[in-house]
């Protein structure tokens, strides 16, 4: 039996009424203490009546206590037979709990890429009444996440950890990132920090560094310490950085013996030096296109007065500045990525020694573009400067072709990344001038209708050279005869000269999605591309055949790749080996970064709820005993046993409410107390005349 209240009026109003009775009683105490007391009792009875006290009688059934068994289903549980040990232990644990009359519910958490305990608890508690929950048993290898969020669930029962595995007998080596940059600048160093651990206490381990699947260096590092290595960012593009350590027999897994990171290497600014030999119609096209590219920092000079031309005005009257040839070509040439000679001829402004420095600049990795006009055929042209002409892929044969023609792509140009996607020559306008030339070496990408070369590219040393044998590109910009893709053409040409990765003729790349889809892309000028060889997590696979899509582009798609890293390799026609690497977009699976059995992650949650922890190393390991404990107990575990709290939950079947007194009973009680107070105060009951009995003199009544 229990008591409850059903107020007849708002509580604040009942409180006000009770306060009024109390105040009135306090005023009467000095003159009539007995009457004041009776009035106070009458007020209390009235307040009690308004509160509506009731006797509550319930018919209920006792509910069984419940236990939740959480099974770790993450990928690391598949190592060393842990899944079989877990399932056997869960079956025996269920039987013991049910033998004690405990209702058991089972839930799972974790997957291929995560082991979120908080998510598993949330899902599991959906099938358990919190008022009946007596305990939670987590069967896991301890490599879990989300324990802090799990503590925020405010569980009313202990959480017990049953570790699956052998912490003392397991062997594993692992390498992990401490920090790795997501981007870097060309010419600067990338700083990588990592840590190598070995459960057997090996003092040093050899680490191999790979960039885009190619071995770069190998050295021994100290285990258990943070190691820093710097790698130069030599060229732009996405770089795949990999670090690996050798595996050892008996390891739990070798998937954590290698780590990888994607680093996007970018240029701070692409510095272009544009030298125009004289003002002409196409000069503005070059300037507009290069200035509109946000990645290009342009320095432009136009030669308006040759060095040998006399000036008829004094220096103070000239707005021209002397061309700083020595500063540009001797002091600061190495700060530029590309030098463009736009209709430039030798006019005594740039010396032969400075032109030789330009040739050495190309040989060391720079780039030169010659946009030729009629000046290429005259005496003193760049083609006649021996210090520079030896790097040019084509030389003029003499004369100028002043006939209309439509630029067309050669067979190679139709496959080259500079020109392959510019469109069809059927949609291009005509040009009206061409410099007939003899190709010495390199690749012809565009030509006139009669087969005369128009665009020739070549590699010299570590650098690149290109020649555009016409100065009428500006006709496309003006829309003459329909125009053409001048802006995209110049942008790609300049970026190819600067060795941008997306414009490489022979390239191999790959990507690996989170869903395990491997996409391979191969660009080549050859029509017959060889197979690609692959290594998936270090294990070689069968050769992968590529299919041609767009001209010069080959590819293949493989699904169901469970690995975190893939290395690819192929060979070009000239014998060069191309390598590439692919890693999962989200990074390597965290499930394999640490795989040894460890209780540290679960310890805070177990300690906060008063639970206990045991270890099962194999199928024969004995489960701890199960004891029933009080719900208010602080510790629910001991040596060789784990506790399930008694919750004593009930299900109410019916409920009866009876007023403590009938309503007329309250009214009679209040009325009787007030009447008694009146009689006492009027002096009609001598027995209750405390003033006379105590000898207190009463004031006389006046007529």
TrEMBL record:
Keyword Transmembrane helix: yes
Statement: the UniProt record of this protein carries the keyword S-adenosyl-L-methionine: no
Record keywords, A-Z: Membrane, Transmembrane, Transmembrane helix
Residues annotated as transmembrane: 12-29, 36-53
PANTHER family xrefs: BLL2462 PROTEIN
Name under which the protein is recorded: Glutamine amidotransferase domain-containing protein
Annotated source species: Parvularcula lutaonensis
């Amino acid at each position: 039996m229990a008591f409850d209240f059903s107020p007849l009026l708002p509580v604040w109003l009942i409180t006000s009424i009770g306060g009024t009775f109390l105040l009135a009683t306090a005023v009467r105490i000095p003159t009539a203490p007995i009457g004041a007391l009776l009035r106070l009792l009458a007020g209390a009875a009235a307040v009690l009546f308004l509160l509506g006290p009731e006797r509550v009688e319930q018919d209920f059934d006792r509910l069984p206590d419940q236990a939740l068994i959480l099974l770790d289903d993450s990928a690391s549980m598949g190592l060393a037979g842990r899944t079989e040990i877990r399932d056997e232990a869960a079956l025996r644990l269920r039987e013991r709990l049910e033998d004690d009359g405990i209702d058991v519910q089972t839930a799972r958490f974790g997957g291929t890429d995560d082991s979120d305990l908080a998510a598993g608890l949330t899902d599991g508690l959906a099938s358990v009444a919190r008022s009946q929950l007596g305990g939670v048993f987590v069967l896991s290898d301890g490599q879990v996440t989300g324990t802090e969020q799990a503590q925020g669930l405010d569980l009313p029962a202990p959480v017990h950890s049953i570790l699956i595995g052998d912490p003392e007998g397991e062997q594993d080596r692992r390498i992990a990132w401490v920090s790795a940059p997501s981007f870097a600048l060309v010419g600067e160093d990338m700083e990588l920090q990592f840590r190598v651990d070995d459960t057997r206490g090996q003092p040093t381990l050899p680490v191999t560094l790979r960039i885009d699947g190619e071995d770069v260096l190998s050295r021994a590092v100290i285990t258990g310490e943070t190691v820093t290595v710097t790698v130069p960012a030599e060229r732009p593009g996405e770089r795949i950085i990999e670090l690996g350590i050798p595996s050892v027999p008996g390891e739990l897994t070798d998937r954590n013996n290698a780590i990888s990171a994607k680093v996007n290497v970018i240029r701070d600014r692409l510095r272009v030096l544009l030298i125009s030999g004289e003002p002409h119609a196409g000069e503005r096209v070059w300037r507009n296109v290069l200035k509109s590219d946000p990645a290009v920092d342009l320095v432009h000079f136009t030669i308006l007065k040759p060095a040998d031309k006399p000036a008829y005005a004094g220096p103070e009257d000239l707005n021209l500045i002397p061309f700083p040839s020595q500063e540009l070509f001797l002091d600061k040439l190495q700060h530029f990525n590309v030098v463009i000679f736009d209709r430039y001829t030798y006019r005594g402004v740039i010396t032969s020694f400075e032109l030789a420095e330009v040739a050495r600049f190309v040989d060391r990795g720079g780039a030169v573009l010659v946009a030729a006009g009629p000046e290429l055929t005259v005496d003193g042209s760049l083609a006649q400067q021996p210090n520079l002409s030896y790097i040019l892929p084509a030389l003029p044969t003499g004369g100028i072709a002043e006939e209309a023609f439509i630029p067309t792509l050669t067979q190679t140009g139709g496959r080259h990344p500079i020109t392959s996607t510019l469109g069809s020559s059927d949609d291009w306008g005509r040009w009206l001038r061409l410099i007939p030339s003899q190709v010495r070496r390199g690749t012809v990408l565009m030509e006139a209708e009669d087969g005369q070369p128009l665009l020739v590219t070549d590699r010299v040393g570590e650098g690149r050279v290109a020649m555009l044998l016409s100065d009428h590109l500006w006709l496309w910009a003006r829309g003459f005869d329909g125009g053409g893709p001048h802006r995209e053409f110049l942008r790609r040409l300049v970026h190819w000269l600067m060795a941008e990765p997306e414009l490489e003729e022979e390239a191999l790349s790959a990507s690996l999605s989170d869903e395990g889809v491997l996409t391979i892309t191969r660009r080549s000028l050859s029509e017959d591309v060889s197979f690609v060889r692959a290594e998936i997590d270090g294990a070689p696979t069968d050769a992968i055949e590529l299919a041609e899509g767009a001209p010069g582009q080959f590819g293949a798609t493989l699904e169901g790749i469970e690995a975190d890293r893939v290395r690819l390799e192929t060979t070009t026609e000239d014998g060069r080996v191309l390598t590439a690497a692919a890693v999962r977009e989200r990074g390597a699976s965290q499930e394999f970064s640490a795989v040894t059995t460890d209780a540290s992650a679960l310890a805070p949650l177990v300690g906060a709820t008063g639970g206990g922890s045991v270890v099962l190393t194999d199928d024969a390991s004995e489960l701890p005993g199960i004891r029933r404990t009080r719900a208010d107990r602080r510790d629910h575990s001991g040596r060789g046993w784990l506790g399930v709290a008694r919750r004593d939950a009930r299900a109410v079947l019916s409920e009866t409410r009876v007023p403590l007194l009938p309503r007329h009973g309250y009214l009679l009680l209040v009325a009787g107390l007030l009447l008694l107070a009146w009689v006492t105060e009027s002096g009609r009951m001598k027995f209750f005349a405390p003033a006379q009995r105590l000898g207190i003199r009463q004031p006389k009544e006046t007529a």
